[in-house]
Design goal:
The complex is a heterodimer. Chain A is an alpha+beta fold. Chain A has helices at about 25-35, 35-40, 40-45, 55-80; strands spanning about 15-20, 95-100, 110-120, 130-140, 145-155. Chain A has a 5-stranded antiparallel sheet, with helices on one face. Chain A starts with 12 loop residues before the first strand and ends in a 7-residue tail after the last strand. In chain A, about 35% of the residues are buried. Chain B is of the alpha+beta class. Helices cover about 25% and strands about 35% of the residues of chain B. Chain B has 4 helices and 5 strands, in the order E-H-H-H-H-E-E-E-E. In chain B, strands 1-3-4-5-2 form a 5-stranded antiparallel sheet, covered by helices on one side. Chain B starts with 13 loop residues before the first strand and ends in an 8-residue tail after the last strand. The chains are: A alpha+beta, B alpha+beta. Chains A and B meet through helix 1, helix 4 and strand 2 of A and helix 4 and strand 2 of B. Strand 2 of chain A pairs antiparallel with strand 2 of chain B.
Chain lengths: ~160, ~150
């Protein structure tokens, strides 16, 4: 969602981008952050319950974020070109209900989306709204591989306290 | 052979790991690749944001926590991965120069009904900085192979 808090409606959903996961980058991420054998080595992954090399769930989540930032940047650039004010997006206090429902294998292309499911004005910081987002990633066969519910601070156009 | 199986992670057990130094270079390198928002890339942009200074991407913090969990016990265990995370709270910014300590609290465990070789342990993972500030919490079930598959738990 690249809008001021005031303009976000529950049910707004956008496709933010997609990413092809290569074996090389799956192994590079795993070597640094999640060096479990099934993320790190094709042969060991074959012997595991996954049966093949799979991306760390954190790698999948990080690529959702990368696509989200790129989407927001494209939208912000378009708003600036139209001479519109661009809302500030704040940090996130966290997320819940992350499900890695199916493995992400080398060669999979994951398409990511985000959907507004709840909005409220921050009580302690009235210049900000809090938006709850349902985020997901789906592979090339239409199978969902990741979902989670995140919270983001988004600037209000109308900054009067409730 | 794994050193630790499902049965070893009994309720009430805790594991501590660290401290691990977080550098400016790695905060910026992760952000540049996965979360290129100015507050994770640039000191001044961080100061002008709610973070009040350059702070690590929350996803970087998750990745660092994952690595610390691997080094604390997971790589020596019969891990079968994790299929979900119940909740992550990013409580305070993580700064260049922070030294993070991980504490894992093992809560209740249960045998998998559908997979007799597997047990699932609920774990609360916490990260603290050198001042003792609680900076992140993650609540997640960990799947592990059982030492004694198929026996009632």
């Amino acid at each position: 969602m690249m809008r001021f808090f005031d303009d976000i409606r529950i049910g707004d959903k956008v496709a933010i981008g997609s990413h092809l996961f290569t074996a090389e980058e799956i192994k590079t991420f795993a070597a640094q952050y999640d060096p479990q054998p099934f993320h790190l080595d094709e042969r060991l992954a074959q012997q595991s319950h996954f049966g093949a090399l799979v991306a760390s769930g954190w790698h999948t989540a990080a690529l959702w974020m990368r696509n989200m930032v790129a989407y927001r940047k494209r939208e912000a650039d378009a708003m600036r070109r139209r001479g519109e004010p661009v809302p500030v997006i704040g940090p996130s206090p966290g997320f819940k209900e992350m499900r890695w429902s199916k493995p992400v294998f080398a060669g999979d292309t994951i398409s990511f989306t985000t959907e507004a499911i709840e909005t409220r004005v921050s009580k302690t910081r009235p210049e900000w709204g809090l938006v709850r987002l349902l985020n997901s990633g789906t592979n090339q066969d239409g199978v969902q591989v990741i979902t989670f519910v995140s919270t983001a601070f988004i600037e209000r156009r109308d900054k009067t306290p409730l | 052979m794994p050193k630790f199986y499902y049965e070893d992670f009994t309720p009430g057990k805790t594991v501590e790991h660290g401290p691990r130094l977080i550098t400016r270079e790695e905060i910026i390198a992760f952000a540049a690749q996965y979360d290129p928002q100015p507050m994770h890339l640039d000191e001044e942009a961080g100061r002008n944001s709610m973070l009040g200074g350059l702070g690590a991407s929350g996803w970087h913090t998750c990745a660092i926590m994952m690595r610390m969990i691997c080094d604390a016990f997971l790589l020596e265990s019969s891990s079968m991965g994790a299929a979900s995370v119940d909740e992550v709270q990013w409580l305070r910014p993580i700064r260049p120069g922070d030294r993070l300590t991980l504490r894992c609290h093992f809560l209740e465990g249960r045998a998998s009904r559908s997979r007799p070789e597997m047990g699932i342990v609920q774990v609360r993972h916490e990260l603290y900085n050198a001042h003792g500030d609680h900076v992140m919490t993650m609540l997640a079930p960990q799947m592990l192979r059982r030492r004694n598959p198929g026996t009632p738990s």
